[in-house]
Design brief:
Length: 140
Amino acid sequence: MSDRSRPDLDDDTVTALGSLSEALETVEQARGLLYGFHQLTGKADRLLQDAVQQLRDAGHPELAEQLDRDLVGRNVIADRWTFQVVEDFDASYWAAFRAADAHAHDQLSDGDRHVLEARMKQRGRTHGHPRHQAGPALEE
């Protein structure tokens, strides 16, 4: 079907699929923040290692040793570095969420995604106006 607004689907189904997609998009944003947390925590550890060396060089070996022992390479969450948190999130939550979203869209809209947005585009565009085309495969 070339009309992504899927006139064959009822409004309640389209709304529900749109809500599911929005939930998945929110999980995708959370995943991005988690990766940011992972990268920032790794950067902080490298900066800490630099500070420890600078303290040693400045003649403060006891403080440097304490920081090195207590903080450098420390687990950020019990028994885990951030890469392990990211891997667990991806394997146990993100992958399941993506699969559930795909399953729902396969069952209810033949795999078409963003049907709600396609309907919004149809309502909001000016028919026949340049740059307001329905889509690359659709005629006016």
